[in-house]
């Protein structure tokens, strides 16, 4: 016994040592079979284990129906996680089959296989055959197509008629899979029918089968029923309008289909009758001599075989309504509710709601109001619906109108209404709404945009709702799509005729949200806003060149840092040691300026200023100019280039200038030739 145990332990230790030395490989959990619906994603996991330190050496391959899977960009197969996971995306019937994972390391292998079943809707049934056609019934047989990977639950039979062969009707009930053959279908009389069948599993219905080759002809018979939704319309005075829902062709059951309409005044014993021969008709209009009279009506289906076996139900209805005879009394503003800028409350005495006074079904009241300055031809209407019952009587009626214009003189009246008509109005009352906050300003837009300022313009609000006192302006910086706090401009605009504002002190190349509120004595209303991005459009730093200095004048030319539209240039100069600058007239077209009338033998500080149309300026560096030409050294005229901060010989400067002019002329000649060719 002890020897046996010893040998067993020895064998286990020997196996573990061999496994560690030679390695081990196995698929820990076998692949599992899966059933999914078509279009779903499937995931197979091949959980491979091996000896420590050997994991990186494992090689995994996947097969589908014994064919190696080679993933590509267009493939539905996707292999993940070092090959241990296989994804089948948007699975269809073509991906149904056996999937195998093969793991190997050196000469050791392990494999696991699972089956994927794709469930889809069934294939259409086949070999549909009409077995018998007798009376009002047809017997059908058919064969199943493929079940789509799931058992078939039932069938839906559809049929058409020779009258409308392109429209397929559904049979009343689905036929169970277990129903015995042949399957019997109930049909309406007077029709020639063809049939087709759809199969259903848990996924859904199949496509329809091919129709039967033979047709089933059913003889005519009595109509099976009568029209539904029988009633009356009451919109015409002294008319009894009887309505119903036309019966479809399949329910006519025979030729010569028509409607037999009967009516009588409630309490009468004599029926009036007429026949409507139009099978598509849905109403009958009759002349009567009463208003909103109560009638008994019925509509019966009839064809050449006879009338419907089903009795026609008697329905109560009314003849047409007319204008109510009453007008509300004591119409006034509700003293318990103050008038608001956009809302007013009213009160009046309720009226007698008996049908002989209302001359129809009482629905409530119609409030009308209009501006005193416009007249009642532009009135607005508000319906006040009142639900009443026999045991409920309201002495007074209260109602409110919202959406009134503020700070406006108005007139109002109230009338009784039934379903289609309105009675005579009450007395008209006059009232005025108080001042309110204004509506938003109109057409807010940026008029000018600079690097540090924005000029806004707008129009007054369409609805001032009072006397405008002015406007409030605010702005919010926007950074990284985050809107900051509102910064209000002070002082506020207190003149309502001012419809523009300039906001200064902004940062260049930043986005801001600008808000404008109109303001009355009651307060400010809703703002209008606009998002604007400031520019980075200050003029470039100009580079002046001083030349031709004599005892009382000097000449300065310049070139901009880069070309800009609408930029003007002028010079500012002052004697050495003085504080105030003098300036020349601005130049738009010329790029030079002669400054005259200077004092001789005097040192001046000079700078060139560039200014755009928004008033934004940039300055050159200050540079000295001596009106005594000999002060430059050898008696020859000198040129000072402010861009480099040094003087050079005036002749050398002129030579360079002539060279620049020759280059400009050459470029101009080429451009002129190009434009001439283009115009041709």
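-> sequence recovered:
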């Amino acid at each position: 016994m002890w020897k046996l145990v010893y040998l067993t332990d020895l064998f286990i230790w020997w196996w573990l040592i061999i496994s560690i030395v030679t390695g081990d490989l196995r698929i820990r959990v076998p692949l599992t079979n899966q059933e999914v619906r078509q279009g779903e994603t499937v995931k197979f996991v091949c959980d491979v284990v091996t000896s420590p330190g050997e994991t990186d050496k494992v090689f995994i391959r996947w097969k589908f129906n014994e064919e190696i899977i080679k993933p590509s960009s267009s493939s539905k197969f996707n292999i993940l996680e070092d090959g241990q996971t296989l994804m089948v995306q948007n699975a269809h019937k073509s991906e149904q089959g056996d999937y195998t994972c093969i793991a190997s390391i050196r000469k050791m292998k392990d494999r696991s296989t699972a089956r994927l079943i794709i469930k889809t809707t069934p294939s259409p049934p086949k070999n549909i055959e009409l077995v018998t056609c007798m009376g009002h019934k047809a017997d059908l047989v058919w064969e199943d197509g493929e079940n789509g990977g799931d058992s078939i639950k039932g069938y839906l039979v559809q049929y058409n008629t020779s009258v409308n062969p392109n429209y397929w009707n559904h049979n009343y009930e689905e036929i169970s899979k277990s129903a015995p053959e042949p399957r019997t279908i109930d049909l309406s009389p007077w029709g020639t029918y063809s049939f087709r069948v759809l199969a259903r599993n848990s996924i859904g219905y199949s496509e329809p089968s091919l129709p039967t080759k033979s047709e089933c002809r059913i003889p005519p018979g009595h109509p099976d029923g009568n029209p539904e939704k029988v009633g009356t319309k009451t919109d015409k005075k002294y008319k009894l309008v009887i309505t119903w829902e036309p019966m479809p062709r399949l329910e006519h059951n025979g030729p010569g289909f028509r409607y037999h309409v009967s009516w009588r005044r409630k309490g009468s014993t004599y029926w009036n009758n007429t026949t409507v021969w139009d099978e598509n008709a849905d109403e009958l209009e009759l002349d009567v001599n009463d208003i909103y009279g109560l009638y008994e009506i019925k509509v019966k289906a009839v064809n050449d075989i006879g009338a419907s076996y089903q009795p026609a139900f008697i329905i109560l209805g009314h003849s047409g309504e007319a204008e109510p005879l009453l007008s509300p009394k004591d119409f006034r503003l509700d003293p318990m509710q103050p008038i608001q800028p956009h809302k007013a409350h009213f009160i009046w005495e309720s009226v007698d709601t008996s049908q002989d006074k209302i001359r129809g079904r009482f629905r409530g009241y119609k409030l009308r109001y209009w501006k005193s300055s416009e007249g009642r031809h532009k009135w607005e209407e508000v319906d006040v619906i009142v639900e009443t019952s026999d045991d409920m009587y309201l002495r007074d009626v209260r109602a409110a109108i919202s959406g009134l214009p503020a700070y406006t003189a108005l007139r109002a009246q109230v009338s009784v209404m039934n379903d289609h008509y309105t009675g005579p109005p009450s007395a008209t009352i006059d009232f005025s709404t108080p001042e309110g906050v204004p509506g938003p300003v109109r057409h807010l837009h940026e008029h000018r945009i600079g690097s540090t300022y924005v000029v806004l313009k707008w129009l007054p609000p369409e609805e001032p709702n009072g006397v405008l006192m002015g406007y409030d302006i605010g702005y919010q910086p926007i950074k990284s799509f985050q809107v900051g706090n509102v910064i209000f401009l002070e002082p506020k605009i207190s003149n309502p005729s001012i419809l523009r504002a300039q906001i200064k002190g902004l940062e260049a190349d930043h986005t801001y949200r600008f808000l404008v509120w109109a303001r009355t004595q009651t307060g400010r209303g809703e703002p209008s806003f606009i998002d604007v991005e400031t520019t980075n459009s200050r003029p470039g730093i100009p580079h002046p060149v001083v030349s031709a200095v004599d005892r009382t004048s000097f000449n300065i030319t310049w070139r901009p840092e880069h070309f800009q539209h609408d930029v003007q240039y002028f010079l500012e100069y002052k004697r050495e040691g003085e504080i105030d600058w003098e300036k020349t007239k601005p130049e738009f077209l010329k790029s030079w300026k002669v400054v005259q009338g200077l004092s001789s033998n005097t040192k001046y500080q000079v700078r060139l200023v560039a200014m755009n149309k928004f008033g934004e300026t940039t300055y050159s560096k200050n540079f000295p100019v001596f009106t005594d030409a000999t002060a430059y050294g050898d008696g020859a005229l000198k040129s000072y280039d402010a861009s480099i901060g040094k003087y050079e010989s005036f002749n050398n400067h002129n030579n360079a200038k002539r060279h620049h002019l020759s280059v400009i002329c050459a470029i101009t000649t080429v451009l002129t030739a190009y434009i001439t060719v283009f115009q041709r």
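The first strand starts at residue 25 and ends at 29.
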